[in-house]
Fold these 2 entries.
Entry 1:
Amino acid sequence: MAEHTIKAFDEEIDKLRGLIAEMGGRAEAAIENAMLALQRQDKNLAAQVVADDKRIDAIEAEVEKLVIQVIALRAPMANDLRDVIAALKIVGVVERIGDYAKNIAKRVPLIAANQRTLEPVSLLPSMGQVAAEMVHDALNAFAARDADLALAVIERDTVVDDFYNSVFRSLVTYMVENPKTISECAHLLFVAKNIERIGDHATNVAEMVYYAATGQMAPERERGGTQPLED
Amino acid sequence: MMHEPQTLVPATETKMTARDVKVFYGDKQAIKGVSIDVDMDNVTAFIGPSGCGKSTFLRTLNRMNDTVASARVEGTITLDGENIYAPTMDVVQLRARVGMVFQKPNPFPKSIYENIAYGPRIHGLAHGKADLDVIVEKSLRRAGLWDEVKDRLQDSGTALSGGQQQRLCIGRAIAVEPEVILMDEPCSALDPIATAKIEELIHELRGRYAIVIVTHNMQQAARVSQRTAFFHLGELVEYGVTSDIFTNPRQERTKDYITGRYG
């Protein structure tokens, strides 16, 4: 894309995009580390995820400040306007994604307190991986202004929803058969729900990326939904 | 008829139509086949870099280019379906129907009253002083100037501030009951407050007159118009709904210009 006549404008847009790339990378790492901590029952790693979330929050504040500055001083138009508005909305969503990862990490010590390995846990790492990849791809799509990649992310949300439905069913079954595990299973249910929400948020990011790249709203997708709540 | 600012309304009446308009200054072609419709219900803004032809094109709409010896106009421009370049067209009458406001306020060196009364008098729109008084008050009210000048109508028009002078010129254009008002960068010599008053005035006049405004200030085009035309190198590159042009232009050249990537 051609450069702005005013160089400082380009520098601000570049800085904005750089911050969002960093934030996306950190959110993705938070999800992966939270899941790893859960699998390995690694309390130190979990504590690290909680601590690292502060930087994600700080980036959100920095981006908000920069976006306000750009709007006030540069009066961005067209694709520039869409970029900065998308940036503002994306950081709000990625911050939430970071919070979900942090929430998963905070549950690790509670689940780890009981050393038994629960069978439904086996699905969670794959589910977490799909969600982390969605976050990764949504942010890559923003960096590359790639509408097709954004659409691919939106379509993948049903995979996470399907995972969630499976985990929900197996956890309920497991709790019925092993009432002593209800406390841990309840935590795991929240973990699954958090990952499911991360998938939804990654989808929201992808929708904003699609809008920023094309100027059109993303096509309405089929919402698979999370059946357990709809029964 | 008042409209919500910024909202495009379906055009009920196409006022002026240009088809394949070409303008030459001697050998140089300044306008390269422009076709556009201007309607009564929406303000149309012409934007583009200096030398793109937007002012030249604006001037073809009331034959101001007739005064330039080397200028030649091809194509068709109609006002209510009537060809304004037809030999039978009375140019003086045309310019009363299609009024113009210029970049620099240019009131006559006469009283405020006379600035407004002059046009209606020579066009025979008033019979006697009482008629003229009514027209002067109505025009100054519509131009948003009445309250500021009603007690000093005999003062010279040139004694007013720049913003007041420009509203006086708009009042002068309104006084002869035009159908179209062309504005050529009407705020470029005004401060932000005077500019805001003119922009508010444009909103109030919308619907009563077809309004076309040429502006270098893209924020102004975004604020006052519902349709925007982007000119570049004598071509009409893109003509569309203002909110679309400024959020999602179709043409690369439009995008580069409005985002400040031009040149």
Entry 2:
Amino acid sequence: MDILTNLLFGLKVAGEPYNLMVAAAGLILGVIVGVLPGLGGANGCAILIPVTFVMPPVAAVILLASLYWGSLYGGCICSILFNIPGEPWAVATTFDGYPMAKKGQAGRALSAAFFAHFCGAVLGTIALTFFAPLLAAFALRFGPPEVFGVMLLTFSAFVGLVGKSPIKTLVATAFGFIMAAVGIDIVSGELRLTFGLTPLMGGFNFIVAVIGLFGIGEILLTVEEGLKFEGVKVRMRWSDITATFKDMRRYWKTLVLGSFVGVWMGFKPGGATPASFMAYGFAKEAMNEEERAQFGQGHVAGIFAPESAAHGAGTSALIPMITLGIPGSPTAAVILGGLMIWGLQPGPMLFVDKPDFVWGLIASTWYGNIIGLLIVLAFAPAFAAVLRTPFAILMPLLIFICAIGAYAVNNRMIDIWYMMIFGIIGWAFKKLDYNMAPMLLALVLGDMAESAMRQSMIMSQGSLLIFVQPPIALPLVIAAAIIGSWPWLNPMIRRMRGKEAGTSAGH
Amino acid sequence: MTTKAADILVAAILLVVGLIVGFDSLRLGAGWGMEGPKGGFFPIVMAALAVAGCVVIIRQAMKGTSSVKGSKPFVPSGGMKPVLTVFIPACGMVLLTEVVGLYVAAMIYLAAYIKVVGGYRWRTVLLISIPIPLIFYWVFEKIFLIPLPMGMIGAQILRF
């Protein structure tokens, strides 16, 4: 088995003491950023990217990936103990997690969440291990038109399936691409959209955008809402963990279902949040009358479902990132950006050129999730204590750390100012339903999408037909067209169906 | 300001930015050049999408079919003050960074914020605001060798 040999090789790479140490450090930092409001996986990775410059790429990606797993684990501490979802996909967990904590079962709720995460992680990692190489081998046949088709599909998925306002998602995406275009044109080398202003010549860095949009913006939203962090105190006892084992045996179907929904949805961009809600809904449907009534009052399956889905989605978001160079989540986008900074070309060739990197990353998700589970089980109360830091102390510290991260990417003072501006934009956009994940993705992928498009057009000497050539590009573009126009298509279909039903009923 | 007004204002700003981008792309040339599409081709497509989208957003906001509730205030009452108490001092820190560097600016910013907004005792204030930037200084400048902004006179202040 080719994959198993590669996996063993990867386990050896990721199992080196230095890499294991890096993974543990990443996990602990990840849980902390996951717990803190205003910092999430995307932000934590963005701030840490300058630190990775001094590491070999394998260790660097292990650090960022571990931070990602840690932040997924940490998010549920916040939503269960404080009733504040640290991330959008943790919203569904608050429905049952917080009531359980209020009832004095905080330890049991947390341990249920952690083990649910672990189940999602295992399924996601299996998918990553066995599916990613196949997809990469297939993607090796992609030329520029196919790459462009995949990008089109990605962004139309955002417009069509994610977010409350499709049109605003479209506008946000367009501005992401526009920001990516500012600076030097990669093909011709001429300056564009700089209007003669020196600060614009360097373009916009996506890391600065992440820190501003998701970090500063989120902090501003938090203080505006005047959130108070008055959480439930927690102690983890051995009996909580044994109780979870019993719960797991009883609701194993919920766990498996949640994990599957997560892995399936997470593969598509922006899938974690809908996945967690879907899993919650499915779990509730599958229960009998009596248990369904307990949902929302603190039913343990109401934690199992969304948490396993969220972690499964987070893990499988790495599959398109590592194989196609298209990240499935904002955090994966930041890791992808890191890849480019370390001088690696994202895409299927990575599997051929840098097997130690790819398999080191895949293997580290196995290690990372096991170590992560042990860390959160052992230290959950300590991590919860971080949130009890008074806001007047925590908040200026967060802004200081954000400023370090924004500056250190390019050593440019102007980037700290950009960070503040992005903060305001993030604050306003969030309130007006502009979806920032595709904007960020467009900023990361802008150069790649544009060069794929321009290379295709050079290949075809200007004919747009190249984007719809069979066998691969055509189905991609058709799928993109259907998914992207879904918000408008769906009511149309419904209206037609409604008419049919109406006429047949009349006869 | 109502959310409706803010919705329209933001879309209008984006519309203007989109138009500016469109005109600059035209200046660069958005047609077929020596080696394929010119530099302005991709941006002008995006600018066109953005401008068209903004028009739709403004129309939706006017007709009240937007996904956000237009009648609600954009900033809930009592929400603006905490936002400004965070944002303005943070900008102050960035301004100070230009002069004394990030570490010293952070010390002043942390101390001022924790004292004035948090209302803590001087002992707490100093125990947090002095050592934390120093730890970061040690980690970034000495261990990872990542230089952070020193401003005009920051390097003279931190001489160890």
